[in-house]
Amino acid sequence: MTETVAIIDYGSGNLRSAEKALCRAAVDAGLDTRILVTDRPDAVAAADRIVLPGVGAFGDCRRGLLAIDGLKDAIRDAVRVQGRPFLGICVGMHLLAREGHEHGVHQGMGWLDGVVERMVPADSSLKIPHMGWNEVVLSDAGRAHPVARVLESGDHAYFVHSYHMALSDPSALLATADYGMPVTAIVGRDNLVATQFHPEKSQRVGLKFLRAFLEWRP
Asked: Is this model's pTM higher than 0.85 or not?
């Protein structure tokens, strides 16, 4: 049976790279999966899995999402009511927080109890934005999570960001990276999983993570 994965197009995201990477992961897994880039609420409502990418500032991404009539509600219904698997990427992860503190205070979706804050590494020589390859280190919860646990010791992923999610609920923390401070790298609860890094840019590591997401049955 064909599954449809809806990649949300709200004017902020690395859409084609995400589409290509998910298509490759589906082929690698031998899955009959249709990858759809869409801004249509009806297409989101009909999808089996939801991917919310994001590049840029928290407030701009939030405004872009709200600007498309019915889209935010369709995502919420598919994910929070229907329980369909959800993947957030970068700012797509940030939007799950209670609020974001980038260029002001902005309300998030509130699906995870956390705040998106500017990174302040202990080593002042480390440049912001944090850009490049970093090791992803799983927490105990991450080692038990069906998607996150495919990552192994020494696996590196590609990061590009100046802000990160500070979680109030440590049980939702699946992995961290070190950039002069602990950086939230993967979060998850119930049918949600989200990454600070870009799996679509993380080559072998990203593809196996995306494959695990496509095979996940939360």
From this structure: yes
